[in-house]
Amino acid sequence: MQFKIFEPNIEVNGSTVFSIIAGLGYFTNLSRRYFSQVGIGTVINKQLHVDLNGWYPQAAWLEAFENIANQVGDRVLFNIGLSIPAHAQFPPWVKDIHSAIQSIDVAYHLNHRKNGKELFNLKTGFMAEGIGHYGYSKGLKENQIISISNNPYPCAFDHGIITAMAQKFNPFATVTHDDMAPCRKKGADTCTYNIAW
Ligand SMILES: [Zn+2]
Q1: Is 4 domain-assigned?
Q2: What pLDDT, on a 0 to 100 scale, did the predictor assign at position 21?
């Protein structure tokens, strides 16, 4: 189910929050209203300020996304997702479309923490649970990847992230939401995206 946290005490880091709000238009009324009203960022002189070294509750973050979805629509969530890879840092092993899609889950865990502890350890490669995943599997056809999202972020947002990551290496890649599969927007636990190029 989109927007519902899996576990309490999960936080998202300030640089992720900043890059997402920057993608939206950092100083716009939209960012100010949707994020400051759930306690994310502080408005000073009509501008929203985010602590880059801070951590923000995932529950509040998702609440802002839900308000955006209800009041502005999925298109904005898709565009937020699309803007993320432009700002994010990726591990050095990201070299093609396959590793790009695999890296989404790592980056996702690097940017969240539970009870004050980061969910991915870069040194050991250990990944802790608590926020769900972004999946990767090879499709049946050549030049095809299936990515199943089971995490609390919205369907349209993930569609945007996966599209941007796929097109980073294959500009002509297409990412289609599998409408025949379960969808978080309809209350299911997962969404399935079909990546082809
Ligand atoms: Zn969906």
Answers
A1: no
A2: 81
